[in-house]
């Protein structure tokens, strides 16, 4: 009787899928959990921020120009008397959208290029990697400026510029992972079964590279937001009166001496957002690393 | 010759390595001209020390390595030149079981998906229910339970993983299974379980095995015929009884005498070989074993020995058994 | 000295304290190593044999492991109670160890001669020159070819067998009383293994060092050991001299182990495998740890873990079948049929 009970418990033990293992390990990373909560909060603001803010983003109030933080205006007002809090909250959507769009495009392109380069090697590898080397040779921001200069300013072009400069990172990452996995015994075993190249690529190699892609995705998300804001700060991205964080920062710069908060709050928003994505990336890396068990 | 399932003729597998000279290509001769046959229903054991090319040979036979030259005939069909696409139908006949049960299963696939994959790839099922039934049957066949199907490889012990690997190989109902060191990573008690399972499956499913291993006792236990490899070549091939009771090649003799016997009362004369295996990159000239051979003659240093049949189906690659030469010396 | 045992391990328990809970890697090990003899500790992976050796060497620092209970008596003195510094002084001079992996246990950026000499310098107050001389003598004894050259070479230039010889030279250069060999030949080929085993036997005779030999290979045990302790799930389950254990095993696990190895020249026989797997540490059986896989298990085995029973002088077994103090071979055989 007792034996039966024991066997049952062992049989009924919760199935540990790779995903559930990841969640278990992720929960142990306190920093990353806090960062994730903050990011979820940001996403919530991106969707519903415009409905909950007390003022419209372009609601001018010339009676309250450059006022300090108060109960009425939590973050104060800018040079046109617009409520800074409302503008920053509404700016979340823009920053997240730029980050999401640019990194997603970059990750998809980079992953496909990396898979092809790593798996087939030869001339395909040479061409793809040399292009990546060229892109890597430019500092990211300079590259983005160059692309925006060619395509013209505007948010869509910023997304394209940031996507182009994040693609090689993904390509290189996925390629090196592909090279490792290509020679693993389980891929050999799959070839032995007669699995086609496409299935090997997408069923055996890609899932193995996904954890690294996710980590890189999170890291790139932060840096993309930073780059996009930098472009706007330089006047090459979002145009006034868009409440883009980089643009807010740039406007506030003129009043730094008299009204510091006009620059502090947008800066803080950028800082916290980028930091959260980096912390999340670190946490995910540890949670997804198979070597770090427990 | 209808009972010959596999014939390998003068197979060579070389790996290119960076040469010392400029533009000069150099090769590691992992397999250097191997010839053998495997009959239907038998177990052919390939035994040798690390670096002798036995695993490369095993993988080469099912074309998971690029063959440099030679021929591989399966069921009379020359598969040497087949590309990946044409090999796909051959893979239904030849399957491999790998050494490391930890590395050979994709950690991100459930056991069900791992075993179902060959069925999916070759369309060997009618509908979803049929697929499920087939996978569960395979699981039972190798001694696992239904509840194991939804679990992932990391939850299994080495022996259980090897069972999963065997189930995957059986899925396409092959006639030849190449087992590359299938038990060397396992504990003794588990090793016996897997060996017995392989024996049982062979009888139930009419399988033929090529069994590659470094452990002479394991190879003796499971094989009908044995080939002993040294540095990319066979040195002796023959019926297991003949090889083990009457080893002819000096290397086989030394190898057999070096195996520790689990009997503290046994007293044996041991032939201690000197030095270690030379590199396959620059193998010795002549007979590759002559640098360590206790019976090395002058001719061994320059001339590679041919195959001499010393007994019915018992072949030795050694100048000692060259009848012509013996006559001359007398 | 009152006893001729150079090393006695009494009721050793080594636990690992991890986030997932306490793992009882060693949970009741009692062995005695006679002076000048070789004691084999046999067990499968996870049986705790390596952790036992690390506990003796005091090499658990840096891991989550701790000796929870028990004594390790070296010449009658308990070394568990010593400070870290005292333990360090013992290592290399009185006890030394060779590891399984000859490829990774040598420092890749240090010359062979310097590595061997360093061991001497750590424990003896002599000049570097004298230490190198000692190292050279020791290397010569281990039979490495071209010693003068070898002294100036780096590990990557050596083959696996040569590296293991260097490891042995390092371990023995300070003439320790005890040499712990943790699977020293597992990574080597049979012909090289034969060379190394031969060397160890020869050096043992010359130096009188006692050897604690840890392995999973019963063939190797039969060749080199005088006494054997069989381990299962962190416990010693049977202990005795090597001939008794092989001829007359009394614990069902030992029997199973001996039945499951294929032997040269015995290929006709079917292998008797032990069914099942080593229990999951989370679901350790309550009674005898071998009970779920044991063909002779009874209700008593399920409920209560057996202690040691003496079968004859020096042969003890942790099995209820041996309770009455005499070997019940007949009973056991019958139950198996």
From TrEMBL, chain B:
Q: What is its EC number?
A: 3.6.3.-
**Which GO molecular function terms does the record list?**
ATP binding; ATP hydrolysis activity
The alphabetical list of record keywords is:
ATP-binding, Hydrolase, Nucleotide-binding, Transport
Cross-referenced CDD domains, in alphabetical order? ABC_NikE_OppD_transporters
Domain ABC transporter, which positions? 6-256
Write down the top EC class of this protein.
hydrolase
Tell me the SMART domains matching this sequence.
AAA
Q: Name one GO biological process term.
A: transmembrane transport
Family of the protein in this entry: Belongs to the ABC transporter superfamily.
Please give the name of this protein. Dipeptide ABC transporter ATP-binding protein
Q: Per UniProt, what is the name of the gene that codes for the protein in this document?
A: gsiA_4
Automatic annotation (TrEMBL), chain C:
Give me any GO biological process, just one.
peptide transport
A GO cellular component term found in this entry reads: plasma membrane
The first-level EC class reads hydrolase
EC number(s) on file: 3.6.3.-
UniProt-annotated location(s): Cell membrane
A Pfam family per the record: oligo_HPY
Membrane topology category: Peripheral membrane protein
Where does it mainly reside? membrane
SUPFAM superfamilies, from UniProt? P-loop containing nucleoside triphosphate hydrolases (SSF52540)
GO molecular function term, any single one = ATP hydrolysis activity
| Swiss-Prot/TrEMBL keywords | ATP-binding, Cell membrane, Hydrolase, Membrane, Nucleotide-binding, Transport
Similarity-based family:
Belongs to the ABC transporter superfamily.
**Stored PANTHER family:** DIPEPTIDE TRANSPORT ATP-BINDING PROTEIN DPPD (PTHR43297:SF2), OLIGOPEPTIDE TRANSPORT ATP-BINDING PROTEIN APPD (PTHR43297)
- List the protein's name: ABC transporter ATP-binding protein
Which species is this record about?
A: Fusicatenibacter saccharivorans
- Underlying gene: gsiA_2
């Amino acid at each position: 009787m007792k034996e039966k009970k024991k066997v049952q418990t062992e049989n009924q033990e919760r199935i540990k899928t790779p995903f559930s293992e990841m969640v278990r390990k992720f929960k142990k990373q306190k920093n990353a959990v806090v960062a994730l909560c903050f990011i979820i909060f940001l996403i919530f603001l991106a969707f519903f921020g415009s409905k909950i803010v007390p003022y419209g983003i372009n609601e001018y109030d010339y009676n309250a120009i450059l006022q300090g933080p108060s109960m009425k205006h939590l973050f104060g007002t800018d040079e046109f008397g617009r409520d800074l809090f409302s503008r920053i909250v509404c700016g979340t959507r823009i920053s997240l959208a730029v980050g999401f769009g640019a990194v997603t495009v970059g990750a998809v392109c980079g992953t496909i290029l990396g898979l092809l380069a790593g798996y087939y090697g030869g001339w395909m590898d040479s061409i793809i990697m040399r292009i990546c080397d060229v892109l890597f040779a430019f500092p990211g921001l300079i590259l983005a400026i160059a692309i925006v200069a060619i395509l013209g300013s505007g948010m869509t072009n910023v997304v394209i510029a940031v996507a182009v400069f994040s693609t090689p990172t993904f390509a290189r990452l996925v390629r090196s992972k592909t090279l490792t996995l290509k020679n693993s015994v389980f891929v050999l075993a799959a070839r032995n079964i007669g699995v086609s190249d496409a299935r090997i690529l997408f069923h055996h190699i890609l899932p193995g590279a996904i954890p690294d892609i996710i980590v890189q995705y999170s890291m790139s998300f932060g840096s993309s937001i930073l780059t996009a804001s930098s472009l706007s700060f330089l006047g090459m991205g979002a145009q006034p009166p868009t409440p883009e964080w980089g643009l807010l920062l740039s406007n506030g710069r003129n009043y730094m001496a008299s009204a510091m908060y006009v620059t502090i709050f947008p800066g803080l928003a950028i800082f916290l957002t980028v930091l959260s994505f980096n912390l999340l990336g670190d946490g995910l890396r540890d949670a997804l690393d198979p070597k770090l068990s427990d | 010759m209808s009972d010959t399932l596999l014939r390998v003729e003068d197979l060579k597998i070389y790996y290119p390595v960076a040469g010392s000279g400029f533009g000069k290509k150099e090769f590691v001769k992992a397999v250097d001209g191997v010839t053998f046959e495997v009959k239907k229903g038998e177990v052919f054991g390939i035994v040798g020390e690390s670096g002798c090319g036995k695993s490369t040979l095993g993988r080469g036979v099912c074309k998971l390595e690029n063959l440099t030259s030679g021929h591989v005939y399966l069921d009379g069909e020359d598969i040497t030149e087949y590309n990946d696409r044409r090999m796909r139908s051959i893979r239904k006949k030849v399957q491999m079981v790998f050494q490391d049960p930890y590395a050979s299963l994709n950690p991100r696939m459930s056991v069900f998906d791992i075993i179902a994959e060959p069925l999916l790839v070759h369309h060997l099922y009618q509908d979803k229910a049929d697929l499920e039934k087939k996978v569960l049957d395979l699981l039972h066949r190798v001694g696992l339970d239904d509840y194991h199907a939804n679990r992932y490889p990391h939850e299994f012990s080495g022996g259980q993983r090897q069972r999963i690997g065997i189930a995957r190989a059986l899925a396409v109902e092959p006639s030849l299974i190449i087992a590359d060191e299938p038990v060397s990573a396992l504990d003794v008690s588990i090793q016996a379980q897997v060996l017995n399972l392989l024996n049982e499956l062979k009888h139930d499913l009419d399988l033929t095995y090529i069994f590659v291993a470094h452990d002479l006792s394991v190879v003796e236990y499971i094989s009908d015929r044995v080939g002993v490899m040294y540095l990319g070549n066979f040195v002796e091939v023959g019926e297991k009884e003949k090889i083990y009771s009457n080893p002819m090649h000096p290397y086989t003799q030394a190898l057999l005498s070096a195996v520790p016997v689990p009997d503290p009362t046994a007293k044996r004369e041991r032939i201690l070989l000197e030095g270690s295996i030379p590199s396959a990159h620059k193998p010795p000239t002549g007979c590759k074993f002559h640098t360590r051979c206790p019976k090395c003659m002058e001719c061994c240093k320059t001339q590679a020995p041919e195959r001499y049949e010393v007994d019915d189906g018992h072949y030795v690659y050694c100048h000692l058994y060259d009848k012509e030469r013996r006559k001359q010396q007398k | 000295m009152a006893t001729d045992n150079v090393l006695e391990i009494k009721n050793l328990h080594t636990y690992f304290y991890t986030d997932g809970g306490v793992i009882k890697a060693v949970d009741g090990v009692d062995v005695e190593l006679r002076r000048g003899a070789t004691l084999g500790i046999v067990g499968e992976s996870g049986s705790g044999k390596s952790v036992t050796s690390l506990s003796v060497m005091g090499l658990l620092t840096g891991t989550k492991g701790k000796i929870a209970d028990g004594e390790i008596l070296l010449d009658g003195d308990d070394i568990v109670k010593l400070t870290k510094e005292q333990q360090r002084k013992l290592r290399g001079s009185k006890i030394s160890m060779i590891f399984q992996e000859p490829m990774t246990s040598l420092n890749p950026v240090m010359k062979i001669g310097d590595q061997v000499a360093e061991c001497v310098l750590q424990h003896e107050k002599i000049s570097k020159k004298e230490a190198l001389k000692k190292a050279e003598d020791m290397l010569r004894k281990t039979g490495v070819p071209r010693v003068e050259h070898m002294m100036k070479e780096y590990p990557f230039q050596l083959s696996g067998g040569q590296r293991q010889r260097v490891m042995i030279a390092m371990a023995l250069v300070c003439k320790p009383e005890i040499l712990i060999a943790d699977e020293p030949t597992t990574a080597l080929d049979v012909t090289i293994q034969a060379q190394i085993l031969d060397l160890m036997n020869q050096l043992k005779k010359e130096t009188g060092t006692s050897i604690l030999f840890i392995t999973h290979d019963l063939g190797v045990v039969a060749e080199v050991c005088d006494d054997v302790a069989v381990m299962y799930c962190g416990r010693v389950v049977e202990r005795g001299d090597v001939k008794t254990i092989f001829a007359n095993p009394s614990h069902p696990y030992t029997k199973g182990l001996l039945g499951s190895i294929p032997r040269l020249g015995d290929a006709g026989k079917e292998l008797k495998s032990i069914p099942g797997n080593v229990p999951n540490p989370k679901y350790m059986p309550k009674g005898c740890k071998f009970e779920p896989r044991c063909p002779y298990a009874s209700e008593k085995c399920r409920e209560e873990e057996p202690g040691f029973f003496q079968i004859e002088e020096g042969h003890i077994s942790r099995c209820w079948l041996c309770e009455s103090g005499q070997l019940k071979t007949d009973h056991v055989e019958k139950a198996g049929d």
